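Design request, tokens follow.
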């Protein structure tokens, strides 16, 4: 049996038409047949019309009854929220509705409206003082090591009055719209110098630092190879870096003499770690000259003395090698150049091989006279005693002006003083007029062993 819920209005009307047609057919079959009479045509026509009228009455009553059942059936079979229009629409657009039903993420307009209706949206106008951030300016500086930065000027924030509209939703800040800005104090920019010099970066130095000669070179009057020479600077000597006009040339100061030199001739303690020690020795060696003052220390260390006197080719008896520390100690104690003192001993004793040196431990021929050198010379218990005795005599009588404070609270007598140089000592110390030149030759030999 077909489910009534699945029928629509068209089906119901079709069924009613079928029922009415069946009833009409049944009535025709029950009506008795009458003979045809011409005179009774009007009556027949009348009865026929009567029957037609009755038949029409019956048909109308059936329709009314059918409609009543139909209305009751529709009330029972169809839900309250269903209309005929919806039923027809559903039948006609079922494919379109199916497509919409496939979208499982459709928007719920009602929920959206509800959520926005509940939102608490507030706007307020504010006026307040705010900082204006300063900017940073970067300037290239060729006198700084590459990539190094120096702050030339600190930055300062400015001040401004700001009028704005702030929007809040449910108590949370959403956005701000600026209405007006009024500058109160202008910001001051931060200025930073950025170095570009690869030369300075390579050697880890700055203008004003000490650098060293990697090779002997000349200071020039200007930054040209053909410029006039100002001074010669020996290898390992130090100079003060004054200016850097280019990556090829720089201006330096050498012992108060200023000039220009090629950057390729310079190095630093960072680039050449051993250069400081070499510079110390070089500084000592440049002071070695025949007119140097001898009433002061040499500046050498005990290790320097050891280096100088160890394995001397001419010191066959190892006399000077065994007494290097004596020369060093005497220098410190009596303020006399120890290399000068050792050079006198080498010259007077022929490297410790003379008879007086060998037998009397007297390296200087101290006390001897030209007529009787051996007999008149002093005897010492050891070489160190003779070294110290001669040192005290030179300090007191030859090297210092009269009244100069010397050792043990004494003052210089200066009986034979003619200046604190080799030539000055030669005047009263030796009869050989070229004695000072011969002694200086030994001094140079000893000093050069430091190189």
């Amino acid at each position: 049996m077909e489910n009534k819920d699945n029928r629509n209005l068209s089906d119901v009307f079709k069924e009613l038409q079928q029922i009415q047609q069946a009833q009409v057919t049944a009535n025709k079959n029950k009506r008795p047949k009458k003979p045809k009479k011409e005179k009774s045509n009007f009556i027949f026509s009348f009865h026929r019309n009567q029957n037609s009228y009755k038949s029409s009455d019956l048909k109308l009553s059936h329709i009314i009854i059918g409609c009543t059942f139909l209305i009751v059936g529709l009330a029972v079979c169809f839900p309250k929220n269903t209309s005929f229009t919806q039923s027809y629409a559903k039948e006609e657009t079922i494919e379109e509705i199916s497509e919409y039903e496939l979208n499982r993420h459709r928007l719920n307009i009602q929920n959206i409206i509800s959520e926005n209706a509940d939102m608490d949206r507030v706007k307020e106008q504010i006026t307040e003082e705010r900082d204006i951030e300063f900017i940073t300016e970067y300037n290239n500086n060729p006198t700084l090591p590459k990539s190094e930065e120096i702050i030339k000027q600190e930055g300062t924030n400015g001040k401004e009055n700001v009028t704005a509209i702030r929007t809040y939703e449910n108590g949370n800040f959403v956005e701000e719209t600026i209405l007006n800005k009024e500058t109160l104090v202008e910001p001051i920019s931060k200025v930073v110098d950025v170095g570009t010099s690869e030369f300075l970066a390579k050697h880890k130095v700055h203008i004003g630092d000490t650098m060293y000669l990697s090779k002997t070179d000349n200071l020039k009057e200007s930054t040209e190879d053909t410029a006039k020479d100002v001074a010669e600077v020996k290898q390992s000597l130090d100079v003060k870096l004054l200016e850097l006009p280019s990556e090829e040339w720089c201006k330096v100061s050498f012992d108060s003499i200023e000039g220009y030199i090629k950057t390729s001739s310079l190095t630093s303690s960072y680039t050449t770690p051993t250069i400081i020690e070499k510079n110390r020795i070089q500084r000592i060696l440049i002071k070695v000259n025949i007119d140097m003052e001898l009433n002061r220390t040499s500046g050498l260390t005990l290790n320097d003395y050891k280096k100088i006197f160890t394995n001397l080719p001419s010191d066959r008896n190892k006399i000077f090698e065994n007494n290097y520390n004596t020369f060093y100690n005497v220098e410190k104690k009596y303020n006399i150049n120890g290399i000068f003192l050792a050079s006198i001993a080498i010259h007077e004793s022929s490297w410790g091989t003379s008879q007086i040196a060998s037998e009397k431990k007297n390296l200087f021929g101290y006390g001897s006279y030209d007529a009787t050198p051996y007999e008149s010379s002093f005897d010492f218990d050891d070489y160190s005693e003779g070294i110290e005795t001669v040192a005290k005599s030179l300090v007191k009588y030859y090297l210092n002006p009269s009244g100069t404070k010397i050792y043990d609270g004494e003052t210089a007598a200066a009986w034979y003083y003619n200046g604190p140089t080799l030539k000055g000592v030669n005047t009263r110390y030796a009869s050989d007029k070229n004695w000072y030149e011969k002694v200086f030759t030994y001094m140079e030999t000893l000093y050069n062993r430091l190189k």
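Comment from the thread starter after seeing the answer: thanks! The mean pLDDT is 84.
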